[in-house]
């Protein structure tokens, strides 16, 4: 036992003083209570009580509110979809009326205003509208009024009379529902003018019963609830809603409404019990997790109580032993350090330990990191010509360390800023991807822009779509994205937006000329930083509604989407399995090129092993996306476009859909069958966006994986947003993506075939092929390269805009037809380039 120096042990026997109970109890030291146990118990209660409160909150408040909010979002979506469908149907009906009135017989009757001829025309037009109750053609006088003297002239009531009056006076006249002889009818009116005799006009009054609109209320998914069509009327001194037509039945749930454009109607939707139950089933408090947490708390308390007692006993033994044997001691319970020190002082009889006379203050001797000298302004023509091959059709691209040295980058940045100033653009957004060279290039570009007198908004390390988003969101409508896109790690480049438009070949050439001559604007700009990621996430989440959570594997390929895409999909309510989501510009796990299916093997394995609903892979900067189904099938982008076209065109009849020359012609046939208009166009993300703006298309896509949404989005290519739209479509379907695409048109086709040809030879070779190739049984199209359509398929050969190569693709109904088309192209290409290695 340890004997403290300077103290004698009392001898047993009679005490020399009066002995108290405390003195008899181990020399005045006793245990009263257990503070350690009480502290642990208090900590246990501090943890347990919030858990119990959280359980009560989740069960009684949060879960019902979350269920209600989710049901409301789903119901709002159904109401909006149905309202758009009815509005589009009414617009289509007016178009049909306009087409019918344009017939020669109708125009003659309008011109002559012969009552007998008008009756015949009415009957003929009525045959064109079998669903109509009646159709009247009412000639207008030279004064522009219908002859309604002597009564309603066959019109049913003052409502039809008022419709005729309003349209004849060129006033807005929405269709109107009313009751006539106990039956609900709907009438719409519009004026028809003779194209050659402007004074000859007539009013077409088309009347339908409500069965037509009841049919419009049928939802493609079946009876998901009650749909009702209501009209606001003024009656008995107040506005009230009257029900025109309805379908289905709803549960005891809040109704959602949506305005039908260009009508006095709204669609009311009450979800069915089945839909409410289905949506509600996906919202449940995490009782299991909370239960596990409670059990863990109890186990942790018991374990901590036992462990802490043993640890305290062990630590006290070590302190006493260290004091007895004068050995070095590390105390593991900091609160016992004062006790250990006091015991050490008493036993060692030393005021200090060791000699402090040789202690020297530590000095930080590390050298500063090497930094490059800051780029200064560049004036005058370039002493060496800028590499022409870095200036591509719609971006600038090359090997970062050789083609994109600091002076070249500075000249390009100065040229961009100069052109922006000529366009009246003062501020440019700048973003960059995760490549090793991107930060350097971004710094040089920013300095060049500032010294050219433009301001800079630095949006940081982001995927390319966020640069496009920034130029749509912020007042700055111009920007530069530093990215090597889908190219290997040693490459880098610039994608450029000027005044809201991604630039193409003409502007690229202008940038090259200004960069070469050095005629730059001068000034002093200002730079700020702006985080647009949260704005982007908020915008996408507010636009996309996921009815049923999905399990999605996200393969970012170590690209710039790695820190955004998983968060986005999780906020949308999906379960995300991240794959290669650490941003690493060396791309250690796979190439950033998602067009090569060999790069997707890890994604396929991950989808299969996790039984995911589907997986997605993005290229290096996130403007391309590839989808892998739950069965491990890689979906080519033209098939993905068919899925999106079904969704977009079905809800927007007559919509334009733009697709590039590499896409399957089955896509065009499907779009036409849905009532849309397919628009074939040149390959290239900038060219596609120009065509989207020109046509007002609601959807666009390239075979390489660029998907453009003009409906509900900004029209730029965004792989992450496309993933969200795909999840939205699939979450509203009671089938897998494999089932969803099983009934799509199928053809035998090749992937994109790369034929290496030097940049300075590829366009001349392509032109020679176009001029000399002859396909007797095919229909050639030289919109972009040469695409030849045959009866059972097609073939394409074109010069790549992004690399030193020709690209080819072929499609046919079967393998024999595919080989026949390949052979035709192979023979024709070999005739103009006999030394070329043709890999098909």
UniProtKB/TrEMBL annotation:
<keyword id="KW-1133">Transmembrane helix</keyword>
<feature type="compositionally biased region" description="Basic residues">
    <location>
        <begin position="1"/>
        <end position="11"/>
    </location>
</feature>
<feature type="region of interest" description="Disordered">
    <location>
        <begin position="1"/>
        <end position="30"/>
    </location>
</feature>
<dbReference type="Pfam" id="PF02879">
    <property type="entry name" value="PGM_PMM_II"/>
</dbReference>
<dbReference type="InterPro" id="IPR005846">
    <property type="entry name" value="A-D-PHexomutase_a/b/a-III"/>
</dbReference>
<comment type="similarity">
    <text>Belongs to the phosphohexose mutase family.</text>
</comment>
<keyword id="KW-0472">Membrane</keyword>
<protein>
    <recommendedName>
        <fullName>phosphomannomutase</fullName>
        <ecNumber>5.4.2.8</ecNumber>
    </recommendedName>
</protein>
<dbReference type="Pfam" id="PF02878">
    <property type="entry name" value="PGM_PMM_I"/>
</dbReference>
<dbReference type="InterPro" id="IPR005844">
    <property type="entry name" value="A-D-PHexomutase_a/b/a-I"/>
</dbReference>
<keyword id="KW-0460">Magnesium</keyword>
<feature type="domain" description="Alpha-D-phosphohexomutase alpha/beta/alpha">
    <location>
        <begin position="390"/>
        <end position="520"/>
    </location>
</feature>
<feature type="domain" description="Alpha-D-phosphohexomutase alpha/beta/alpha">
    <location>
        <begin position="637"/>
        <end position="744"/>
    </location>
</feature>
<feature type="domain" description="Alpha-D-phosphohexomutase C-terminal">
    <location>
        <begin position="772"/>
        <end position="826"/>
    </location>
</feature>
<feature type="transmembrane region" description="Helical">
    <location>
        <begin position="39"/>
        <end position="60"/>
    </location>
</feature>
<feature type="domain" description="Alpha-D-phosphohexomutase alpha/beta/alpha">
    <location>
        <begin position="535"/>
        <end position="632"/>
    </location>
</feature>
<keyword id="KW-0597">Phosphoprotein</keyword>
<dbReference type="InterPro" id="IPR005843">
    <property type="entry name" value="A-D-PHexomutase_C"/>
</dbReference>
<dbReference type="InterPro" id="IPR016055">
    <property type="entry name" value="A-D-PHexomutase_a/b/a-I/II/III"/>
</dbReference>
<dbReference type="InterPro" id="IPR005841">
    <property type="entry name" value="Alpha-D-phosphohexomutase_SF"/>
</dbReference>
<dbReference type="GO" id="GO:0004615">
    <property type="term" value="F:phosphomannomutase activity"/>
</dbReference>
<dbReference type="InterPro" id="IPR036900">
    <property type="entry name" value="A-D-PHexomutase_C_sf"/>
</dbReference>
<keyword id="KW-0812">Transmembrane</keyword>
<dbReference type="Pfam" id="PF00408">
    <property type="entry name" value="PGM_PMM_IV"/>
</dbReference>
<dbReference type="InterPro" id="IPR016066">
    <property type="entry name" value="A-D-PHexomutase_CS"/>
</dbReference>
<dbReference type="InterPro" id="IPR005845">
    <property type="entry name" value="A-D-PHexomutase_a/b/a-II"/>
</dbReference>
<keyword id="KW-0479">Metal-binding</keyword>
<dbReference type="GO" id="GO:0005975">
    <property type="term" value="P:carbohydrate metabolic process"/>
</dbReference>
<dbReference type="Pfam" id="PF02880">
    <property type="entry name" value="PGM_PMM_III"/>
</dbReference>
<keyword id="KW-0413">Isomerase</keyword>
<dbReference type="GO" id="GO:0000287">
    <property type="term" value="F:magnesium ion binding"/>
</dbReference>
<comment type="pathway">
    <text>Nucleotide-sugar biosynthesis; GDP-alpha-D-mannose biosynthesis; alpha-D-mannose 1-phosphate from D-fructose 6-phosphate: step 2/2.</text>
</comment>
């Amino acid at each position: 036992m340890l004997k403290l120096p300077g103290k004698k042990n009392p001898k047993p026997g009679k005490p020399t003083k009066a002995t108290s109970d405390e003195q008899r109890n181990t020399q005045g030291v006793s245990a009263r209570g257990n503070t350690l146990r009480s502290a642990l118990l208090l900590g246990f209660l501090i943890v347990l009580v919030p858990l119990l409160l959280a359980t009560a909150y989740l069960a009684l408040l949060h879960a019902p509110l979350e269920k209600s909010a989710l049901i409301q979002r789903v119901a709002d979506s159904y109401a909006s979809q149905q309202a758009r469908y009815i509005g589009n149907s009414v617009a289509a009906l007016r178009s049909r009326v306009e087409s019918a009135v344009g017939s020669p017989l109708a125009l003659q009757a309008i011109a002559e205003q012969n009552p007998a001829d008008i009756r015949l025309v009415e009957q003929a037009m009525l045959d064109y509208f079998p669903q109509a109750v009646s159709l009247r053609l009412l000639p207008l006088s030279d004064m522009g009024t219908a002859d309604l003297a002597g009564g309603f002239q066959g019109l049913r009531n003052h409502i039809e009379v008022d419709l005729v009056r309003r349209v004849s006076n060129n006033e807005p006249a929405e269709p109107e529902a009313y009751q006539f002889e106990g039956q609900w009818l709907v009438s719409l009116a519009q004026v028809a003018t003779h194209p050659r005799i402007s004074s000859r006009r007539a009013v077409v009054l088309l009347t339908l019963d409500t069965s037509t609109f009841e049919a419009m209320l049928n939802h493609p998914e079946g009876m998901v609830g009650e749909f009702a069509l209501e009209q606001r009327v003024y009656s008995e001194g107040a506005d009230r809603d009257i029900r025109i037509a309805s379908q289905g039945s709803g549960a005891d749930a809040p109704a959602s409404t949506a305005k039908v454009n260009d009508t006095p109607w709204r669609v009311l939707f009450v979800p069915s019990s089945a839909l409410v139950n289905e949506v509600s089933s996906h919202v449940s408090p995490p009782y299991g997790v909370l239960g596990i947490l409670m059990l863990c708390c109890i186990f942790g308390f018991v374990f901590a109580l036992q462990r802490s007692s043993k640890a305290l006993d062990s630590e006290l033994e070590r302190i006493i032993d260290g004091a007895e044997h004068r050995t070095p001691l590390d105390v593991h319970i900091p609160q016992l350090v004062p006790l250990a020190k006091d015991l050490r002082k008493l036993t060692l009889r030393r005021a200090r330990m060791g000699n402090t006379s040789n202690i020297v203050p530590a000095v930080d001797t590390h050298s500063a990191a090497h930094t490059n000298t800051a780029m200064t302004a560049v004036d005058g023509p370039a002493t060496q010509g800028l590499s022409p091959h870095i200036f591509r059709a719609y971006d600038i691209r090359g090997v970062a360390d050789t083609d994109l040295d600091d002076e070249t980058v500075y000249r390009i940045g100065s040229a961009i800023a100069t052109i922006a100033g000529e366009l009246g653009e003062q501020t440019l957004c700048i973003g960059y991807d995760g490549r090793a060279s991107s930060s350097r290039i971004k710094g040089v570009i920013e300095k060049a822009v500032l010294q050219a007198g433009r301001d800079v908004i630095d949006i940081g390390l982001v995927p390319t779509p966020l640069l496009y988003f920034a130029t749509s969101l912020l007042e700055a409508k111009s920007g530069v994205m530093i990215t090597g896109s889908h190219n290997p790690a040693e490459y880098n480049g610039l994608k450029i937006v000027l005044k809201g438009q991604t630039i193409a070949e003409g502007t690229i050439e202008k940038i090259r000329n200004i960069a070469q001559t050095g005629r730059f604007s001068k000034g002093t700009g200002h730079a700020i930083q702006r985080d647009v990621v949260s704005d982007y996430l908020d915008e996408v989440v507010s636009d996309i509604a996921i009815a049923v959570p999905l399990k999605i594997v996200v393969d970012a390929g170590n690209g710039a989407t790695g820190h955004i895409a998983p968060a986005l999909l999780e906020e949308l309510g999906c379960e995300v399995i991240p794959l290669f989501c650490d941003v690493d510009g060396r791309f250690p796990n796979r190439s950033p090129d998602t067009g090569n299916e060999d790069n997707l093997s890890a994604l396929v394995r991950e989808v299969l092993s996790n039984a995911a609903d589907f997986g997605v892979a993005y290229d290096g900067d996130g403007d391309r996306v590839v989808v892998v189904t739950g069965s491990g099938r890689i979906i080519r982008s033209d098939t993905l476009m068919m899925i999106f076209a079904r969704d977009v065109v079905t809800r927007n009849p007559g919509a334009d859909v733009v697709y590039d020359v590499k896409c399957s012609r089955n896509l065009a046939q499907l779009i036409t069958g849905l009532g849309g208009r397919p628009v074939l166009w040149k390959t290239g993300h900038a060219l596609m966006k120009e065509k989207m703006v020109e046509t007002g298309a609601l959807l666009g896509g390239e075979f390489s994986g660029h998907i453009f949404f003009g409906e509900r989005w900004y029209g730029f290519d965004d792989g992450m947003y496309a993933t969200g739209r795909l999840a939205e479509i699939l979450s509203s379907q009671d089938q897998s993506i494999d089932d969803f695409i099983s009934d799509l048109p199928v053809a035998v086709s090749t992937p994109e075939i790369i034929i290496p040809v030097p940049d300075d030879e590829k366009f001349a070779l392509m032109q020679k092929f176009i001029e000399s190739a002859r396909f007797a049984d095919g229909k050639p199209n030289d919109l972009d390269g040469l695409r030849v359509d045959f009866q059972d398929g097609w073939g394409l050969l074109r010069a790549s805009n992004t690399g030193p190569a020709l690209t080819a693709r072929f499609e046919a109904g079967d393998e024999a037809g595919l080989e026949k088309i390949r052979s035709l192209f192979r023979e024709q290409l070999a005739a103009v380039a006999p030394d070329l290695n043709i890999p098909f």
